[in-house]
Design goal:
525 residues, alpha/beta, TIM Barrel, 2 domains, 11-stranded mixed β-sheet, 8-stranded parallel beta barrel, 11 helices
Length: 525
């Protein structure tokens, strides 16, 4: 369908169909996670900088903490990443001035250990996020993992739990989600292993950790990315060894324009969708072979846009105490891709239970900082913050009739990508949409008569006439969500014109409380 627009051309139209009865699954808050690794300036001069004008008594930057709270990550993975595969967690506890300085082989830095598990757990709680901790299965094993769990979660009365209390953390950290290592199929990883070696170690570690605390949830380490020759075969072997002991299997994927192919880059979510479905099928196949009634979920605990072509690699780094590392500066197109990846995660809410955008500050991050100076939001900050704020209730299945465009990597891809969530209690309906067209606005049409009551329309868009525009310290609000002026709601029919290359959020908010929310209020004491 096409319609005329003011310039005299023809505007393409996209018809969306959505119904409250057709639900994918509930929105798990852990879909909106992030990642803090001892890498580059994520920790040091990122979240932590004693002497900064905003630093608190523990040295944490309050300007960064405020932005993190605004961003809204619900769970934060720590301390790695590649870093964890050579990490000794004991180095990061006790009096700071007595902590050892160690070589970090992953990123060729001297780790000062000023920040460890106690400080991170306190920071995460202050940020309103659940801590998610990875154990070292690269150079260490079962004993060190169970020791760390005992230190973190056991109330008191043992050497390690009492040591935590003596170190100032009287109450247990109550860390629920634990990653059994990181990317151990990668030959760059310290302690690189075969699938069978890792699968057996993961099973042994999981079994012992569950003896310490049976309440925890465990993530088995999947392939480093879908381009690895080990992808799917690695997971199959690993899960045959530990399927009934774990709750999640991890998936890591990053995206960038390859050879300047922007059109394929804008369609990156197609690849993420294929990866999710392939890994889900692999896990289900193993479950069927084992005759297990259990169904695993996915932890997409590293995902983002990352210009890896600009990173020379670990082997090219000189030893340093701290350095800037892969501090990508993101433009409008990057934000649109991040938005489409968030949409894909929502659309698979039935099987994706955890997702962590990597990383939180400075290192391929939504937040950038200057040492001793400002902190500001990158363009990719805004899609994430809006989804964490407005995606509530259940994800609804959206049927879209969208025109397509050709890509070199993925064939014909829809120009418009959408997801919708509906909170039955509040009655809020949220539609998230990207327009991948680099040149044309697109109109969407949505029949919302199936959602009862009068509604107020709120609509925003993030776009810019120049899609390479970035936010910088001197002008941090060049690219922010602004009111979507061409959005209308009339007699149950919604229409909105999505600007070219844009991320859009459209909310329909009941003018009166819904019956379910009224009932719930009446039942409250």
């Amino acid at each position: 369908m096409v319609k005329r627009y003011q310039s005299g051309g023809m505007m393409k139209s996209v018809r969306l169909t959505v119904d409250a009865a057709f639900r994918v699954g509930p929105v798990d808050p852990r879909l909106f996670g992030s990642f803090v690794e001892h890498m580059g300036r994520c920790v040091y001069t990122g979240i932590f900088e004693p002497g900064h004008p905003t630093a608190d008594s523990q040295g944490f930057r309050q300007d960064v903490l405020e932005l993190v709270r605004e961003l809204g990550p619900t769970i934060v993975r720590y301390p790695g990443g590649n870093f964890v595969s050579g990490y000794r967690w004991e180095d990061g506890i006790g009096p700071v001035d007595q902590r050892p300085r160690r070589l970090d082989l992953a990123w060729r830095t001297v780790e000062t250990n000023q920040i460890g598990i106690d400080e991170f757990a306190a920071w995460a709680r202050a940020a309103g996020a659940e801590p998610m901790v990875a154990v070292n299965l690269g150079t260490r094993g079962v004993q060190e993992a169970t020791d760390l769990l005992e230190y973190c979660n056991h109330p008191e009365g043992t050497e390690l739990s009492d040591l935590r209390r003596a170190n100032g953390s009287k109450e247990p950290h109550e860390i629920k989600v634990w990653c059994l290592g990181n990317e151990l199929d990668g030959p760059w990883q310290v302690g690189h292993k075969t699938a069978l070696e890792y699968g057996r170690l993961a099973a042994e570690t999981a079994r012992a950790m569950l003896m310490v605390d049976p309440r925890i949830e465990l993530v088995a380490c999947g392939s480093s990315n879908t381009n690895m020759p080990t992808f799917a075969a690695w997971e199959a072997t690993v899960l045959e060894n530990c399927y009934d002991l774990v709750d999640y299997v991890s998936l890591h994927n990053y995206y960038e324009p390859v050879s300047g192919d922007i059109d394929s880059f804008l369609a990156s979510s197609v690849d993420l969708e294929v990866a999710i479905e392939a890994l889900t099928a692999t896990a289900d196949h193993v479950g069927a072979r084992l005759r297990s009634p259990k169904q695993l979920r996915l932890s997409v605990d590293e995902w983002n846009v990352w210009y890896q072509q600009d990173f020379a690699g670990q082997g090219e780094l000189e030893w340093a105490e701290s350095r800037s590392l892969i501090e990508d500066s993101y433009n409008v197109a990057d934000a649109v891709v991040v938005g489409s990846l968030l949409i894909t995660l929502l659309r698979h809410a039935d099987r994706v239970g955890i997702a962590c955008q990597a990383q939180l500050v400075n290192v391929i991050a939504p937040i950038l900082t200057e040492p001793g100076g400002a902190a500001w939001r990158q363009t990719i900050f805004h899609p994430f913050a809006q989804v964490t704020r407005y995606a509530r209730g259940d994800v609804l299945r959206v049927e879209a009739r969208s025109p397509a465009y050709p890509t070199a990597l993925y064939g014909d891809v829809p120009l418009v990508e959408t997801a919708a969530t509906y909170d039955e209690e509040s009655g809020d309906l949220a539609v998230f949409a990207v327009n991948r067209s680099r040149t044309e606005p697109l109109e969407i049409e949505l029949d919302v008569r199936g959602f009862p009551g009068e509604r107020t329309l709120e609509a925003t868009t993030l776009h810019h006439e120049e899609p390479t525009t970035r936010n910088v310290a001197s002008d941090p609000d060049r690219v922010v969500p602004r009111m979507l002026s061409k959005a209308r709601l009339s007699e149950g029919h919604l229409t909105a014109v999505l600007p070219a290359l844009s991320w859009n959020v459209i909310r329909l908010i009941p003018d009166e409380p819904t019956a379910s929310s009224t009932d719930n209020k009446e039942q409250q004491p």
